[in-house]
Amino acid sequence: MTTVRVVVADDQEIVRTGLTMILNAEPDIEVVGQAADGLRAVELARRLRPDVCLFDIRMPGVDGIEATRRLAGPAVADPLAVVVITTFDLDEYVYAALRAGARGFLLKDAGAALLAQAVHAAAAGDALIAPSVTTRLLKAFAGAGPAGPPRQPVDALTEREEEVLGAVARGRTNTEIAAELHISLSTVKTHVASLMAKIGARNRVEIAMWAYETDRVRFR
C-alpha cells in the first residue's frame, strides 16, 4: 500500500492537530509536516515534496490562496497537489482557490471520511469539491466568465469525449461514468486524460470549468 504524504497548514494549532490526527488515523496517509502560516507551508512543501498539501485559506502573511498559487499555479513547472480547507463557505474563496491551482475545496465540517477522500483524490490527480458548494461554485465560474475567450481544443472532441466531459462537469466519479456510459473504468480514464490534453486542463475541476465556460453544459 502506497502511503500518501501530506503537509498541513493552518494558523490555529488545535485545527492543525485535529486534521493531523484524522489523517494519521488513515492506514495509508501520513502527515509529514505542519505549518502555522502560508510562507512556512510553501517552504515545507518545496523541501518535502508531499503528495498533497492541505491548506487553510485564512493564514497570516501568505494566505492559503497565495500559497496554492506558488505551489500549483499556472506558472509552476512541477505543481504540487493542494486541497484547500476552510470554515468560510464563500464563493469568492472557492473561485480564487481553484483558479490558483487547488485540486480540492472542503469545509472544515466536511467530516473525516470526506477529508480522507479529498486527499486520496488529489494524490491520484483527481479533484474533490465539497458537495455543498459544487454547483454553486460552477455557477460562480460561469457568472464571472473566463479571463479571455475559452480555450479551443487542439483537436475536436469525439462524441464519447463529449459525453464524458458532461459527466465530469456534473460531478460524476470515474466509476459512476463507467456505469452510466457502459464502458470500462480504464476507458473512462483514457477519455479523461484525452480531454485534459485536448483542452489544456490540469485536473477534473478545470475540465468542468471549461465545459461550463464553453456552454457545453448548462445549469438546470
Automatic annotation (TrEMBL):
In this chain the Response regulatory domain maps to 5-123
Specify the protein name: DNA-binding response regulator, NarL/FixJ family, contains REC and HTH domains
Give the GO molecular function terms.
Answer: DNA binding
For this protein, the record's InterPro entries field holds:
CheY-like_superfamily, NreC/VraR/RcsB-like_REC, Sig_transdc_resp-reg_C-effctor, Sig_transdc_resp-reg_receiver, Tscrpt_reg_LuxR_C, WalR-like
Domain HTH luxR-type span(s) in chain numbering: 150-215
Task: Please list the residues that carry the modification 4-aspartylphosphate.
Answer: D56
Xref: PROSITE patterns? HTH_LUXR_1, HTH_LUXR_2, RESPONSE_REGULATORY
The record's Gene Ontology biological-process terms are: phosphorelay signal transduction system; regulation of DNA-templated transcription
Keywords (A to Z) from UniProt: DNA-binding, Phosphoprotein, Transcription, Transcription regulation
One Pfam family, please name it: GerE
